[in-house]
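Weekly modeling sync, notes
Attendees: S.R. (lead), two postdocs, one rotation student

Agenda item 3: backlog of single-chain predictions. S.R. asked that every request posted to the team notebook include the full sequence so nobody has to chase files. The rotation student volunteered to paste the first one in as an example of the format we agreed on. Action items at the bottom.

Example entry:
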Amino acid sequence: MNAISQNRSNSSVLVVDDEPGMRTALEANFLLHGWRVETATGVHDAANAIGKKTFDLVVTDIRMRDGDGFEVLCSVLKNSPATAVILLTAFGSVPQAVESMRSGAFDYLTKPISFEQLQATAARVMRRMSEKTGKPASSTVTATVTGAGIIGRSPLLLQTLQRARAAASTDADVLIEAESGTGKELLARLIHESSDRCRKPFIAVNCAALPEHLLESELFGHAKGAFTGANAAKAGKFELADGGTLLLDEIGEMPLNLQPKLLRVLQEREFERLGETRPIHVNIRVIATTNASLGAMVEQGHFRSDLYYRLNVIPLSIPGLRDRIEDIPALARHFADKFATETSTDTPLLDPGFVQKLQEHTWPGNIRELANFMRRVLSLNQGARIDAACFDKEFRPLGKSRAAAAMMPVPGTPISVLEKMHLENTLALVHGNRTHAAEMLGISLRTMRNRIKEYGLPPRRYA
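Predicted structure, as returned to the notebook:
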């Protein structure tokens, strides 16, 4: 047995295909590379296998006589979110590929299958899911969502995922309160994809990114001629999410005057488009997220108490990265592997000294900050090994920089001055990348552009 086979001897794969010839060929190829292999003849057979045993990988055809690969994917997400899924089809298309990734697949390959490509994809699965010490992927809880993932095995994260899976088995609305950059939308998608609604739409609305005068139309839709510029009827997000899940991101930014209407929709699951009187009924689950304390906002009069209690049926929170430092090595390797895939390069070795440096930092921007830092390190330090010197060269802690020291608030300093300085320092940290800066600050790219214009920052410098 070769070195590759020895490395894979503890990895298991379930092959699902209703064509005996293809099933046998896939089984033989995985056995040749040292995998432990089981096979299933279709959707129902696969569901039984997944319900009885945990696999590191499931490779499934999409079109089968008793169903399709998306049903297999739903079974995996419900029963074993740590398992990666690769979908195969002879009828490949770009929309279907996008849908596969949105539904939670690790990758999507088109028949006729290149076994070399399949093994390369499987290798990426194991690199992403395994610890460097060689622990099997099942020891790392991973829920793949739109090509990214919730990765970790810390007790606090496992507790959160357990509560999320319990919430997924119901239709109750969910409120996720957590710091910016912790992965609130990923957790919302995991709940959706682990529920019976996984084949229906997942629609997300960022309440902070839309102007107040457009938010109502965006949520509830409008009739033709309902207002100036409404040249055609438009369905709102509630209507588009019928049967599935609606994510209300940054719900704390919902204007007070819209909150009573939202409360009515949550209670009745009924609304009217702007300019219409015909009621529209929807069957949806609502997940709301916020990086603020809605309870505190209620006390301050900035959020309605009745809407808060209606949203807070199942409360969830995600621990900050500083509270789950044991997950940092796996996250760093995930981002390194993701960057290597995007750039078609080999994943570099992360030196233990580099990883230790990562674990010593508190990461106030949480996973988003770590992801941006890893991208910077890998972009500027190309090689087979990333060591502690790379960390020291690229890491710029705002709290210890002269720019940050200059931001220490002096009593009486206008808030706008402090905001401008903080914006400048954040843009400098990410080398002027406005998208990354907006993500770190928890604001929309549109807001970022408006702030740059408002404060007269040089637009070319921050391209």
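Discussion: group reviewed the output briefly. The domain at 321-395 is CATH 1.10.8.60 (Helicase, Ruva Protein; domain 3).
Action items: rotation student to repeat for the remaining queue; S.R. to check formatting next week.
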